[in-house]
Amino acid sequence: MIKIGILGGGQLGRMTIEESRKLLSYIEVLSPDYPAPGADLADVTHVGELTDYEAVMEVASEVDVLSYEIEHVNVDALTQLEKDGKIVIPSAGVLRAIQDKGRQKLLMDEAKIPTARWAWVGDGTEAATQAAVLEAAKALGGFPLVQKARTGGYDGRGVAVLRSAEDARAPEDGGKLLPVPSFLEELVDFQKELAVVVVRDRNGNEDSYPCVEMVFDSRANLCDSVLMPARVSQAVMEEAAAVARAMIDCLDSYARKNSTVQTSGASGVFAVELFLTRDGRILVNETAPRPHNSGHITQDACETSQFEQYYRILCGYPLGSTQLLKHGMMVNLLGEESANGEAVYEGLADALAVPGVRVHLYGKRQVRPFRKMGHLNAVGSTAEEAMDRAEKARKTLKIVGSGRAV
Ligand code: ADP
Predict the structure, then answer these.
(1) What is the pTM of this model?
(2) What is the assigned CATH class of domain 117-186?
(3) What number is the average pLDDT over the span 18-41?
(4) In this structure, which long-range contacts are made by residues 93-97, counting pairs with CB atoms below 8 Å and at least 24 apart in sequence?
(5) Measured in angstroms, how far is the CA atom of residue 159 from the centroid of ligand 1?
(6) What's the average model confidence in pLDDT over 84-103?
(7) Is 222 touching ligand 1 by the criterion CB < 6 Å?
(8) Nearest CA to ligand 1 atom 12
């Protein structure tokens, strides 16, 4: 049996392990916490930091193929492992490009992939100051603008909307400036946020799922629900797929060019996040090198889920079909605003009674306000039917806390 190692103990690893069991599998996980969603289901769990070089090397020494379900891992360890002949998916070079949003922007410009106009704050390597932001803002035609940290961002942290020169002041002076190496981007006037999940096996065979449309919950700053397929024209669907695939090609070339050894390049599961602007253009926002929240709906709306694809790719098996079977809507299940303590799932039975609805819980013992505890997928023969079912189940199911710590 092929031994797989996954860096990260979260729900993405958990759902991959769940899918992999159909094919028989052996998966070791490195997780900073235990218990944790992925760590709970792994054959072996190593508890350690994902940024710890030695901890990554130790897991790798026990497996045939190493992967990661989160971007914040020690990329130097992955690079060394590739030099030692270990298969790393996606390759270390891909992760290096993705960990630095500034480098992603440079690569997109080089490859002529459409993306929002941008400019470094200063030379992009030193902590941002108000003066440097004002200078960069001039080059982009003034505010409003979005400041993005080059590294370390996640779920909207590391992104600041600067509406005026006052916003460009340091937080201690009442502004929103991120005092880190960063760049500015034009604030995109978008009609929709879209995403395309692209899958590429170790031989370079590639496919993509139908483009999805994302809806954000501004209270929780999280992608709250996803509709597949997106409610856009066929031309937009096709262009979104073409742009997303071009982005993966671009990462593949970068990784191969910058490695002295043979690597897996951009093989793996990728989510390319896109903006559809009000004037109809598609721009790439960023890429995730792993299964993604925008692809959860594939579990119930498509022939093969993104998690099964991921496991197939890690093992060197052929890709499964990305065929859409039904319209689908995914809704993230978050802890209620006041939830704390041990998680309690109120109304679960009623949610499960809604036709076409499947609930996927991550097994997190502890609930916090807006913590992602699971998701539900609703399918239907039309977008409206899927949305109605999803809304009905969402209203029924509440994740509250017992008030007692676990
Ligand atoms: P993260 O990596 O933390 O998820 P993103 O770059 O995806 O950060 O930004 C989070 C969200 O902020 C996006 O999904 C989008 O809603 C908004 N956003 C990001 N960049 C822009 C932009 N240039 N214009 C308008 N909105 C943006």
Answers:
(1) 0.96
(2) alpha beta
(3) 97
(4) 93/254, 93/255, 93/256, 93/258, 93/259, 93/263, 93/265, 94/251, 94/252, 94/254, 94/255, 94/265, 94/266, 94/268, 94/289, 95/68, 95/71, 95/289, 96/255, 96/258, 97/251, 97/254, 97/255
(5) 7
(6) 97
(7) no
(8) 156
